[in-house]
Specification:
With 185 residues, the chain is an all-alpha fold. Helices cover 45% and strands 2% of the residues. The protein has six helices and two strands, in the order E-E-H-H-H-H-H-H. The longest helix is centred in the middle third of the chain and has 26 residues. It is elongated and about 80 Å long.
């Protein structure tokens, strides 16, 4: 059981929270971060970070490039996109120097296929940050509309706060003191 006021874990049939002194009733689980945009005490924030570290931790490099789940902002998107472009160009140059007799179109196509997955993951998370489905990527194949999608991904701000694709990247709700703030330990 957890205290409604501070989120501290309570043992057995405790009638008062040992952390803040708030009386029961209690919750069977801590406050859900997605349904409660305001954390009312440091103890609630701590219990949430222990219970769901995957949602509150920064996204790993592997997750950014190989998963379509989650959201990334413009700077992380641009950084990932430029990094993929540089690696692609360096790999292309290295491949042409190592195997000069290989047909250029085969090398180019092979590398494009290898880099397709990370590009899709990166673009999908960026569009999800703007509250658009990853299927929006299909618009890239329509000549003028595709260019508009590219500009949108690079320049449009992401949705503030949570959207249907998750919490904003690395953003925690603010800790708002309550009237019992002086009792926090």
């Amino acid at each position: 059981m957890y205290c409604q006021n501070c989120g501290h874990s309570l043992e057995g049939g405790a009638k008062f929270c040992p952390m803040c002194g708030h009386s029961a009733p209690t919750l069977r689980r801590p406050v859900n971060l997605k349904s409660s945009p305001v954390i009312t005490s440091p103890a609630v924030a701590e219990s949430l970070s222990r219970e769901r570290p995957d949602e509150l931790a920064p996204m790993s490099f592997k997750h950014v490039l190989f998963s379509i789940h989650g959201r990334i902002g413009r700077i992380k998107f641009l950084t990932g996109w430029v990094l993929l472009l540089v690696i692609y160009i360096l790999t292309l140059l290295l491949t042409t120097f190592v195997t000069p007799n290989a047909p250029a179109d085969t090398v180019f196509t092979s590398l494009a296929i290898v880099f397709l997955g990370p590009n899709i993951a990166l673009w999908a998370k960026r569009l999800q940050d703007c509250n658009h489905s990853a299927l929006t990527l299909l618009l890239l194949f329509i000549p003028i509309v595709g260019l508009a999608v590219v500009f949108f991904a690079f320049f449009a701000p992401g949705t503030k706060g949570p959207n249907k694709y998750g919490q904003a990247a690395n953003v925690l709700p603010p800790v708002v003191p309550t009237k019992n703030a002086g009792e926090w330990h």
